[in-house]
Amino acid sequence: MAFFISKATISTFINSLLLAFIICSSSDFGLLQRVTSLGINYGQVGNNLPTPEKVIALLTSLKINRTRIYDTNPQVLTAFANSGIDLIVTVENEMLSTMIDPQQALNWVLTNIKPYFPSTRITGIAVGNEIFTTNDMNLIANVVPAMVSIHGALVQLGLDSFIKVSTANSLAVLENSYPPSAGSFKGEMVGIMSQFLQFLYSTKAPFWINAYPYFAYKDDPNKVSLNYVLFNPNPGMDDPFTKLHYDNMMYAQVDAVIFAIARMGFNGIEVRVSETGWPSKGDVNEIGATIENAAVYNNNLLKRQLRNEGTPLRPNQRLEVYLFALFNEDMKPGPTSERNYGLYQPDLTMTYNVGLSTLSTTSASVTLTSASQVIKH
Question: What's its EC (predicted)?
Fold first, then answer.
């Protein structure tokens, strides 16, 4: 794989400036909120899922106080009132062409946000999901205008300081991700990314990335270290330019995004992981999709969360992560893995236990049960 940094000396000089720029601003994140930065995605593409009330009881028992849904289901929004759980909601992709109209965006906020807030602690609005990596140019062009309109509606209603507007991105927005210091966006996305990043910067909203080391391993299991992608002990890798050491792929992916953002002339934008997970079952060609690997990945990730860790590039900024997903969803299309990311079955039994029941939001000294002891076959 060719390194971006191996090009002309001017490239090295630019990288030096980027690194200095990023490191100097990293200290801004040293005094973040002290609550847990762990959330979980609550997908609902199933015909046998528990009621929202039961979901709240489950999340409360697990001491999870952040979740994300993929719509604005009024039953969910109503049920989550006074639950103490922060909620990110989603504007579905097909609605974006309507949301570019400021009046339609205002009507949407008046219907789907204002009646529930603040009893339901809506903290974010995702405008679509993984749109920039679709082939629909009209849809892509609508993302930022829709975000601007929705943010404008929040401003008009005095809600903009409580609710941030962004969109969740696939890692495929990157042209380069290895080594992390070579992180850059695809050339054809530079124009739209510039607009998007300017919006995030001006509104102090986060950049959300869906980071799945599983896909990297599945696509090339002979070259990608399983221990590296599972957060298991391994030699890791050193970025040859920054000299930063990476002992897992997810942190390297996040830092690649941070570098890509800086290359676009922006810095200080927080990068959060809106989705990450590992399937417990897959088709025969889905290498690594096993219940054992899923348990190890999520267990090790939870341990990292309890350490208040940041990435090597931003060690003082605790990385906010949303696990995917709460439940196995039997109606999701695609390969078998798509229906088997859940930590729980729809009947509320564990697919496997990663120790979530021992999590505490007030102490980072909790010991998680070893994944090798709690896997349920």
Answer: 3.2.1.39
